[in-house]
Amino acid sequence: MSSIDKIAGLGVVAEQFGYQYVDVRRGDGYVMSLVADPAPQARARAAQNWAQYPNAVDGGALPPFVPDAFQLLKARITFDLTTEYSDKQRLIIASLGITVMVVGVAASLGADTTSFVVAGIVWVLLMCLIPVLNVAGRRYKAKYAARLAAAGFTPVTDERGRLRYLPPGGQLPGHGNPFA
């Protein structure tokens, strides 16, 4: 999918039919992972929705869209994307990217002193932006963490050491359910 709104909408519909959101990652767009929700309420909701909307799989009518569920899933997806890489990993990626970009531009301009001086100044200016962007990213992440905490979501560290937010009573897939 190409946007967080589209992928969150798909996730909300999937939850209506017995699935639960697990994670999202960047690929060609965004790639969302879903698993079957083993909770009895989810099974009952899925059975009811499949009975009421049998043509949903063929592009037919879908259950009504719950705006609160959409906003919470969107916040959860956004938070997961912001924690995909640690601050140190983002620093390394940004530093290497800026350096490679500036060296490439300097090489294409020619190998004279002026191009190296201009490239050096541009490199310093871009490197100075990294801490500013890091602070902005932390504020952005804190905004979504606060929204999820206010909705009763629980902060949990997954097996990779990444902070995640789970819905009330939820658990990471594979924990307590060996078949997830």
Strand order in the sheet with the most strands: 1-2
The main pleated sheet reads as:
2 strands, antiparallel
Unreliable sequence segments: none
Radius of gyration: 22 Å
> What percent of the residues sit in helical stretches (DSSP H or I)?
55-70%
Number of helices: 5
Structural class: alpha+beta
Secondary-structure element series? HEEHHHHEE
Gap between N and C termini = 24 Å
Strand content: 5-15%
What is the typical, i.e. mean, pLDDT? 87
| Total count of strands | 4
Please tell me what the overall shape is: elongated
Considering the chains and any ligands shown, give keywords for the structure:
180 residues; two-stranded antiparallel ribbon
Q: How would the blueprint of this fold be written?
A:
Blueprint: H1 4-16, E1 19-27, E2 29-36, H2 40-52, H3 67-82, H4 87-109, H5 113-150, E3 154-157, E4 163-166
Antiparallel strand pairs: 1-2, 3-4
Write up what this structure looks like:
- The mean pLDDT is 87.
- The protein has 180 residues and is α+β, with helices and mostly antiparallel strands.
- The protein has helices at 4-16, 40-52, 67-82, 87-109, 113-150; strands at 19-27, 29-36, 154-157, 163-166.
- A hairpin with a 1-residue loop joins strand 1 (19-27) and strand 2 (29-36).
- Helix content is 57%, strand content 14%.
- The longest helix has 38 residues, at 113-150.
In short:
The protein is of the alpha+beta class. The chain is 57% helix and 14% strand.
